[in-house]
Amino acid sequence: MYTFTSQSTLPPELLAKIFVHCFRGDEYVDEHSGNIGPAVELPRLAGSLPWTLGHICSRWRYVALHEPRLWNRIFIDYNFYAHDMDEFEKLVQPLSRMMELVVSRSARVPLTIFIRSAMEDDELYSQRSFQSLIRPYLERIAHLDLFVTSALHVVDFLRQPSGTAQALESATIMVIQNIDSALRSAGVFEGALALRRLTLYGLYPPLAVPRSSALPGDFKVPWSQLTHLTLTVGYISPVAAHDLLAKCHNLRVCHISISDSAVSHTTPRSVHVRNCSLIMVPQLQQLILDPETATAASEFFQAVLCPSLNSLIQPIGVLARLSYSVLSSFILRSHCELLELDINGCDEDVVPLLEVLCHLKKMRICELLPSRAVEHIAARRFNPALQVIDFGVESVDILAKFVDGLEDALFATPEKQPIFKEITVTVVAGFASVEDAFLVQKARCDDFMERWQGEEMKLKVNLD
User: What is the superkingdom listed in this entry's lineage (predicted)?
Assistant: First the structure.
């Protein structure tokens, strides 16, 4: 017979673990950063889990108030567009007291703070902004995530002296505009010995900021200890990108924006050195590259070696087309085993690139592939490990050849046992008369997917 234990008999430490487990499921999701985990929300008190737990009974209240892990993650919604000046004045001081109260309940546990601020680009607002909320606790903040409308709102934080943020492990600063000048005087990261992840992200496209960015040369950051870096507040030149990577010996994930027309702050001598040697980034596993032009991308790849690279991605919306031949040379020179490729293609022959991607598992090429390449992909001739593919073709005839090859792999030669998990093929045709022919091929796909009894696989064909 089973017996149920009353919560009143549970030890306080076990009850606290249950609360923390529940709190971990009460996650705040932000449209810019995605899932940032559970957090105490300020200034909204009602409905936030730690506050709710304290209203159940006196015992729960005592346990909740004395469990630091319920209070060390704080989300602050600092939106004063919805308030006039009188309301603004009334809200600032109570919010400061709320912050002080929450932090006091976190004991000495490292803090994680998320701030979303939509404020006027005004001196008064900036002087009384959220920066006054976090300044007293900088030495305890391990993770900081800021989303603001203007760099004026983060200047005070960035100008904190070296050594102020000694516990800081990761920092994300997303600024809509005017971040360049604020970074020139930034010193807060210089003495952040625990810093491993740094994201500086501009919401506007890089064209919206000056090309003569101070980054990376003038920005005081312990580059060599970073493992994750996102630097998309403006374009930097390929040479500046090489200098940056040369400093980042431990980098594992990197996202940068480059342009051949960006102003480089590298000296002529440094340029000469870079042209005579290759930049080794030994631990880089994922590169997210945002080039303005194909020329910038080619110049970048020709000078780097990334032996551990397994993922190469161009962000959605980037229009620059990467050269297949340049990529092939880069992959062979680096001796890397690329598992994921997500790029804009070009009008070169893609088959030589496919030949060097023998370990590839996921591929998206935003380009119309020729018939020969499509047949190779369907037959898994060069890429036996390929699981997810997404590409386009210029005619229904090429789609038909792919369907023929895929059907043959699935049924005529079952010993191959393909392990495609997801296939997306888009036919880009400039006239409507191909619709009937497309529907015939789509029906073929639907038919043999119904007959397929192997591993689960998704097949989607589109007509654009």
Answer: Eukaryota
